[in-house]
Amino acid sequence: MSDEEDIVLSELNDDELVEQMFDDLYDGLKEEIEEGVNILLERGWAPYDILTKALVGGMTIVGADFRDGILFVPEVLLAANAMKGGMAILKPLLAETGAPRVGKMVIGTVKGDIHDIGKNLVSMMMEGAGFEVVDLGINNPVENYLEALETEKPDILGMSALLTTTMPYMKVVIDTLVEQGVRDEYIVLVGGAPLNEEFGKAIGADAYCRDAAVAVETAKHFVSRKHNQLTA
Ligand code: B1M
């Protein structure tokens, strides 16, 4: 029997369990991650804390080792798959707040980019905060955004990019909205690890959102401002 099989997750205290979940995420062990999430839920952890402390915390370690050439794409894909398993359990719980509909957002990862974990997290948190979310998935050319804006008529357009090579595409989308004279009809929020506030401003977005919690706060702020302007 291996060392791994000796570990009984439910016998670990919270700190040990979170540490073990970091390891399991690193090793791409989806079932173990799902079990860990369920144990923390049973112990009364808030879904948001599990998401940020156990899952995102673990993914940060994976990210560092990917950057340093210790982990490679196949391993990172397994880790991402394990993370998605945990997120799937948390999604309905985060959306269960019963918050009234506060607005609508269309969101997608830009063309050339297939990273979707952060975007999915933002979608989940936005839904949890009462927003209706239309998720366009990954690798979206400008046409996809335009079509969705036309049919869904959201308050917010959200874009995600994780690569320095794909983040400039956000400007392509915003410039197209400007050209078509519809830029001001939408609140444009952007996010993704390589972005920053300066970049958000430079491309003409309304705001850069550092993480999912900031995305929710920023979205609420802009939507209430929009409603106030409409009723003034
Ligand atoms: Co990729 N990858 N990857 N990768 N990957 C990064 C981004 C990288 C930083 C890794 C590294 O070198 N350290 C690096 C980019 C370097 C750069 O551009 N400067 C990189 C690279 C190079 C690549 C490839 C090119 C590798 C290769 O093939 N040689 C390739 C590109 C593929 C492509 O897109 N065309 C690639 C592939 C992959 C996988 C497929 C293996 C996998 C993606 C699986 C998936 O998403 N389904 C993957 C992963 C998992 C990562 C890392 C390790 C983790 C990303 C992640 O999920 N983080 C990542 C390293 C890192 O970021 N530290 C890396 C967790 C997530 C919760 O955080 O996405 O930042 P994040 O989202 C946050 C915020 O940014 C924000 O809120 C989220 C939640 O708090 N946010 C938004 C994000 N989007 C938002 C949108 C909003 C608002 C907020 O709209 C309103």
From TrEMBL:
Domain B12-binding, first and last residues per copy = 102-232
| SUPFAM superfamilies named among the record's database cross-references | Cobalamin (vitamin B12)-binding domain, Methionine synthase domain
State the InterPro entries in the record: Cbl-bd_cap, Cobalamin-bd, Cobalamin-bd_sf, Met_Synthase/Corrinoid, Meth_synthase_dom
Record keywords: Cobalt, Metal-binding
* UniProt protein name: Cobalamin-binding protein
Residue span(s) of domain B12-binding N-terminal = 8-102
The protein's superkingdom reads Bacteria
Recorded hits in SMART domains, A to Z, give:
B12-binding_2 (SM01018)
Span of the signal peptide? none
Keyword set includes DNA-binding: no
